[in-house]
Structure formats: structure tokens, C-alpha cells
Amino acid sequence: MATRKKAALNKSMKLFYSPIHGFIHKVLVVAHEAGLWDKIEFVPIYPMRDGYSIAAINPLHKVPALALKDGTVLYGSQTIVEFLDFTGKKKLYPKPGPKRWDALRRLALADTVFEVTVNMALEKGENPVRPSVYTWYWPKVLRALDQMEIDAGKTKGFDVGHAATLHALSYLNRQLGKGLMPPVPSNYDWRKGRPKLTAWWTKALERPSVNSHFNKDYKGNDTAEFAQQQVAEVLRAQGKKLAAAPKPQKVDMHLD
Ligand SMILES: N[C@@H](CCC(=O)N[C@@H](CS)C(=O)NCC(=O)O)C(=O)O
To answer: SS3 for 74?
Structure first.
């Protein structure tokens, strides 16, 4: 039996995600922290490239999505990280009480920074660009970064809110590097004037769960053909066939 096939047999879940260089995926960080890395078969999906469709198993056609052996598919990164933490070492969600509410607040803060950064990056490809998208979203990012600076000075340890903060900051870095639109200054550096957040970020980059993928090129198979085979496997586990799936959309938006 081929080595990849053999290795795949030991995996109890498939994680559909986009291996973007320089991006710290909170789902990957949590999977690693939970001790589940080896149980996962990683399936690259680039939802905005032709030929990659996950719509048959996730009606939102979004990544990340986590498929279990029985064909159950979890989507929404918040759902997936809670599932992974619960299934694994159960350490990134403090027990109900002030610490947990604070971790969840920071999770929401960071995930919204990620979401508005995605929206700003997508808007860049529009013609004409609606400047209001930027004037509305950018102040949210600035206020959130200031809150992260306060949080960095107060919180200890590493919880799900921290994983999400890495996710948001790394994605923001990537999009700032590619250039956003005014009023986002060109060469904006969120580290300037935020020494606690900068120190926290630098230290967090040393974690094995971050090293596992940060700034590493993806070495596995990331072809559309492989992705569609994996989608078909999930459908088979659900007792369905890929032929019944909606056709991939024609894509004219670009984001990575
Ligand atoms: N709220 C979702 C957001 C995930 C998300 O924004 N995924 C983007 C990755 S860039 C995506 O798949 N976009 C494709 C699309 O919207 O069609 C989560 O946290 O999982």
C-alpha cells in the first residue's frame, strides 16, 4: 500500500484549510496544542481559485471545515477549535468563569479583526473600491489592536483567545505587506507604540504549535484534483456521491 494511503488510514479527521504562507491558523495552533496533529489529514482548499469547491460538504463554501470519519462536517473556525480542544488535551478553554469569558472575548475581538481584514482585502479587487468599507473597518482594527495591547499586558498562559490573536495579527501582517487602501497608511506597522503586544507576539512565535506551519511552505499535495477526491471521500462517508454536489462557482475574486 502506498505510504500516503497508509498514513491516511490512521487519520480520524480531515481538515480543509488554505495553507497560506505567513499565516498562523488558529485551527492548526489548537490542533497542535490539543495533541491531535497526527490524527488529521490536511486538505488544502483555495476557495477563490477555480476547481476547488467545498460547497458539497460545507454549504458556506468556506474554510476551515473539519470532516470526521462518519462524514460529520464541522464548519466555522470557532466550532472547530472548541471541538478539537474538547477532543484533545482540553487546555485552551478555561472552565466557566471570568477567565473563560475573557478568553472568549479575546477570541471574538481577534476573529473580527481577521474578518474585517478579509473584507478590506477583498474590496481592493473591486472597481470602483467603496472607500466607506475602509473608513468603516479600519478604525475597528485600530481600536482592537489597542485593546490587544492592553490584554497583552494582563493575560498569562496561552488560551484560545491567544491562538485567535496570532491568527488575526499574522493575517493583518500579510495584507498590510501586500498593501491595503487609504486610510490604512502604507507601511503601517501595528507593533509601533504597542510594546507589550509586540513582546507577546515575538514570544508566541516560539511555540511548537506556531512553528508547525508559520512561514513554512506547504509540502503536500495541494492540487484541486486531490481536494475534490477528499471532498468525494467525505461524501461517501455520508452515503452520497460527488455528482450530486453543486458545481464549483466561477470565481472572479482573489484572496489569499
Ligand atoms: N467565520 C468563518 C470565516 C472563515 C473565512 O472567512 N474563510 C475564508 C477564508 S479567506 C473563506 O473561506 N472564504 C471563501 C468564501 O467566502 O467563499 C470562520 O471563522 O470559520
So the answer is: strand
Residue 63 Cβ inside 6 Å of ligand 1? The answer reads: yes
Residue nearest to atom 14 of ligand 1 (CA): 62
Q: Is the CB of 19 under 6 A from ligand 1?
A: no
Q: Which atom of ligand 1 is nearest to the CA of 255?
A: 10
Neighbours of 80 (CB within 10 A): 21
Q: How many domains does the chain have?
A: 2
113 and 60 within one domain? no
How large is the average pLDDT for residues 178-185? 94
Flag whether pLDDT at 161 surpasses 90: yes
- Taking phi first (over 0 means left), then psi (-120 to 50 degrees means alpha), and beta for anything else, what does residue 169 get? alpha
- Confidence (pLDDT) at 214: 97
Is residue 251 assigned to a domain? no
Residue 128: which CATH number? 1.20.1050.10
- Select from 15, 63, 251 the residue to mutate for testing ligand 1; criterion: most ligand atoms less than 8 Å from CB: 63
User: What average pLDDT does the structure give for the chain?
Assistant: 92
Asked if residue 255 belongs to a domain, the reply is no
The SS3 assignment for 16 reads strand
Q: Are 224 and 52 in contact (CB under 8 A)?
A: yes
**pTM attached to this predicted model:** 0.92
